[in-house]
Amino acid sequence: MTVQLKAIKRHPVKGLSGIEMPAADITAHKMLQDDRRFIIATQSSVGQDGVHEWARKSNFLQLVNTPKLAELGIEYDDATTTLAILRNGRVICKGNLEDKMGRTVVEDFLSAFLKNEIAGTPRIYSVPDVSFGDMKEPYISIINLASVRDFGDRVAQTEIDPMRFRGNLLIDGLEPWAELKWEEGQIIQINGVDFRVIHPITRCKATSVNPGTAESDINVPLLLRKGMNHLYMGVYVEALGSGAIHPEDVVTVA
């Protein structure tokens, strides 16, 4: 069976919704361009000096501690680092996140939107050449859509939106859970670009938040443990080469 890359996703602002990319220029030993480039935090969570280096996700606003963020959609322009925030498909706020004025516009919206949800005032931070993935290393995540479907059908007994798992490369054509049999160091190739398998991704309670409703409707980690005897969904890989990848590209498992 042919394995294909079905979608490429990134999250320019950690904790906010992801967006689909029509293509991605992969750079060796880097995450996707602008993926997790910005984070939202409060002074109480990161201190008066703000953020100057990679830090653990527990320091930032994210779905596990601020599920209301799932109510927001986004649009993002690479060329101008402009973020548009949407509710019910309508743009309600827009600002250039690398411009002080633009960033303040977005921060003021988030402050009002999250007024009763958080302690402190939300601020947006970025650090040059730093991506705020869950791991300090610049890994890219792969999600096997067959595993998501199998988890929904056999374990959760409901349709599961793959966006719960906030993956970068969504692939299809594998058997369910086949990705968990990949060995560390094994090579996955997409359109001539090599990716080295790192390890499976352990899932936290952020995945219990339904991205469509912003409600914690099912306990995904508990269901994974009870139904599958593990806490994994997806795997981390590291880009070893550079090149362009696109949806519908063939994925080769060496």
Task: Give a short summary of the structure.
This protein has 254 residues and is of the alpha+beta class. The protein has helices at 43-46, 100-113, 145-156, 220-228, and strands spanning 4-10, 19-21, 24-26, 39-42, 73-77, 82-87, 90-96, 122-125, 140-144, 169-172, 187-190, 193-202, 232-239, 243-245, 251-253.
The helix content, as a percent range, equals: 10-25%
Silhouette:
globular
If strands are numbered along the chain, what order do they take across the biggest sheet? 2-1-10-9-13-12-11-15
SS-based structural class? Answer: alpha+beta
What is the strand content? 25-35%
How many distinct beta strands?
15
Q: Report the span from N to C terminus.
A: 14 Å
Stretches where pLDDT is under 50 for at least 5 consecutive residues are none
Mean pLDDT: 95
Q: C-alpha Rg, in Å?
A: 18 Å
Major β-sheet, in short? Answer: 8 strands, mixed
Order of helices and strands: EEEEHEEEHEEHEEEHEEE
Query: How many H/I helices?
Result: 4
